[in-house]
Amino acid sequence: MGLGGRLAWQFAISHNRYPRRQGLGATILSCHMLAASPLLHFDIIDETDDYIVVDKPPFVLSHPTKPNGGRNLWKELRELFAFEIASGGQVSIVNRLDRETSGLVLVAKTSAAARRFGLLMQQQRVKKEYLAIVWGWPEWERYAVNAPLDRQGKHQESVIWLKQMIHPSGAAAQTEFYAERRFVRSTPSGEKFSLIRAIPRTGRTHQIRVHLSAIGHPVVGDKIYGPDERLYLRFIETGWTPELEQRLLLPRHALHSAKLAIESEREWTSPLPPDLAEFVR
To answer: Per residue in 28-83, pLDDT tens?
Structure first.
């Protein structure tokens, strides 16, 4: 079922679930999922019989992390595509984003599409670009980082199990960075910030965030790789507080999946979401 067919089908059931709004040159489906948990909203910006591209908001898990957990993108999409799944389809997220990262996600709707996208990922033909707001003004316009990554706890004591570090025995990781804009914003923790375009050539856990931190420009709002990893532990204990806001400035790391492309085939873009756009204004 294509984008137009799904729109008509869903409106026949409940016109409140899929309000139609016009994007730049394309129709966007704005999906509101109602459940016992808070409303989950995401935009489907493109759809074919084989895949969809979703613009994921921050604070939404891509996959469930535990049985009977909260709402997540994979679960919502399985509900949305229940008809296709019953007819032999599936939901396979190709480029998984961290919970706090916003932006474009490619999702395969069939096993054949999932296999094809997996092969394209191995061949590095699925191209990804991110926008990040970082602390400080870099002295470079372009900077390439080639530094392997591994889980920190394998090599030294770490209070955060998933935290990554640069280590020679880790997996190869390369990222290119471009300084898009330097700007001033008065805050309790500093006033110089930059908007950076990040192009990962590999896909390691937390790769962009670790590499930016390593070159002295951590992502604003990053609780793990920002000013102090203990802020992450404090957040786990207390939730978001005025004290954390003074140190981190944003309640989530300022990282956005802004461009996604299948080499020589299709390309999708997503502008900065309102919270990040407001910060760089």
So the answer is: 455 544 333 445 788 999 999 999 999 999 999 998 877 776 789 999 999 989 99
Q: Is 46 labeled as catalytic in the residue annotation?
A: no
Q: Which of 55, 98, 228, 275 is an active site residue?
A: 98
Residue 4 has pLDDT above 60, yes or no: no
For residue 58, give both structure tokens.
């921050």
**Domain of residue 50, residue span:** 3-123
> What is the Cβ-side half-sphere exposure of residue 62, based on CA atoms within 13 angstroms?
19
**CA-to-CA distance for 50 and 206, rounded, in angstroms?**
28
In total, how many domains does the chain have?
2
Q: Is 116 helix (H, G, I), strand (E, B) or coil?
A: helix
Start-end of H helices in 30-188: 73-80, 82-86, 111-122
pLDDT at 11: 29
Beta-carbon neighbour count of residue 52 at 10 Å? 21
279 inside domain: no
Spatial CA neighbour of 89 closest among 6, 204, 12: 6
Q: Domain check: are 21 and 92 in the same one?
A: yes
Predicted TM-score of the model (pTM)? 0.85
The CA dihedral of 213, 218, 224, 228, to the nearest 10 degrees, is: 100
